[in-house]
Amino acid sequence: xxxxxxxxxxxxxxSKGIGAAIAKSLAAExxxxxxxxxxxxxxxxxxxxxxxxxGGKAVAVGGxxxxxxxxxxxxxxxxxxxxxxxxxxxNSGVYEFSPIEAITEEHYHKIFNVNVLGLLLVTRAAxxxxxxxxxxxxxxxxxxxLTPPASAVYTGTKGAVDAITGVLAKELGPKKIxxxxxxxxxxxxxxxxxxxxxxxxxxxxxxxxxxxxxxGQVDDIASVATFLASDDAKWVTGELLRVGGGxx
Length: 248
What we know:
InterPro entries: NAD(P)-bd_dom_sf, Sc_DH/Rdtase_CS, SDR_fam. One of its GO terms (molecular function) is 3-oxoacyl-[acyl-carrier-protein] reductase (NADPH) activity. It is an enzyme of class 1 (oxidoreductase). This protein has a single domain, classed as Rossmann fold (3-Layer(aba) Sandwich), CATH 3.40.50.720. The chain is globular. It has helices spanning 17-28, 41-53, 68-82, 105-127, 143-146, 152-172, 190-194, 201-209, 218-229, and strands at residues 8-11, 32-37, 57-62, 85-90, 130-139, 178-184, 240-243. The chain has nine helices and seven strands, in the order βαβαβαβαβααβαααβ.
């Protein structure tokens, strides 16, 4: 039997990149997956099609995690389609780098609203349905410990994710709900490609600091998320798991 047979998972921001890979990995292990997207319905439909073609179960559900009603709707869709919820992957995130002189209120709210408020709103909606043995996985970033220049706002959001993970692990532990953060290094995704990071001095600098000597691939992250979602990680909670090839 697959590790997640009979389980239901919600993955936010799953129309591409790390979220898409996690959704496919969870489905491959038997979970029924809600593939959430904010704007790219086509991307989410492609992920759902790939899962169904491989014999899995998935449904695409739109919703902006930073809006309470839409965050609730994402969770409601899981219950409506599959009748339960066991795994929540808070993957939705945005990033823009900006030096301190250029930071604006708009920049701050755009990034904090998705990366922090969105995580809290979806988790709040999910907790009503999560039972003993459930797993919440927050996708953070190694930036919270690397603290690169010109990333005060983005790194601030990921520091908040680290702290919230610790709080919720203690708060939800009595209900036997596990909460962990999975903190990737640079990963080869559509977003990273669009931003022009691949092939840049930034990429060379990161690879030079990475003992395993390369940029991450989405499957490197998805396999660890699947571990954290499964009973293989039944004694793991409150952890910040860096998945970045050893970068510190």
